[in-house]
Amino acid sequence: MRCVIARFPFELTKAGVIASMKGIKPEPAVGDVVVIGRRQYPVKQVGEAVTRQDRRDFSAGEVVRAMTKLGFTCTTVTAGEQAGPAAGPTETADAAETADTTGAAGAADATGTVFSDPQWSE
């Protein structure tokens, strides 16, 4: 799909955007975000990665408009809502650390493995 960002035309595809963001760690976001996979990226970070332009050269609205047309979910995150990935492994890791399903004493890691060695317990 043809998009104009910062007065330059770009041919963007959903698969191309996903490939551009692969391996990029999301920055902490407050404001407009784009949901790509299970991660929430700030729109300026996505725009910079996709267009290879400086963030000051385009507006967040231009990127939101382009990402919405490509089928991505764009939302606004406030400082109180700022969290990691949406329903990601961090919640299950916290639950696994507090739950001891095997009956053994010790701490559990994210996979549910229980360590009875005192150095692993907190």
Q: Strands, helices and their partners?
A:
Blueprint: E1 2-5, E2 8-11, H1 14-21, E3 31-36, E4 39-42, H2 43-51, H3 60-70, E5 73-77, H4 89-98, E6 107-108, E7 114-115
Antiparallel strand pairs: 1-2, 3-4, 3-5, 6-7
Brief descriptors of the model:
single chain, 122 residues, alpha+beta, three-stranded antiparallel beta sheet, 22% strand
Can I get a quick summary?
The protein has helices spanning 14-21, 43-51, 60-70, 89-98; strands at residues 2-5, 8-11, 31-36, 39-42, 73-77, 107-108, 114-115.
**How does the overall form come out from the CA principal axes?**
globular
Question: Structural class, judged by helices and strands?
Answer: alpha+beta
Q: How large is the count of helical segments?
A: 4
Which strand order does the major sheet show? 4-3-5
Can you walk through the features of this model?
The protein is of the alpha+beta class and 122 residues long. The chain has four helices and seven strands; from the N terminus they run ββαββααβαββ. It has helices at residues 14-21, 43-51, 60-70, 89-98, and strands spanning 2-5, 8-11, 31-36, 39-42, 73-77, 107-108, 114-115. The longest helix is centred in the middle third of the chain and has 11 residues, at 60-70. The protein is globular, with a radius of gyration of 19 Å.
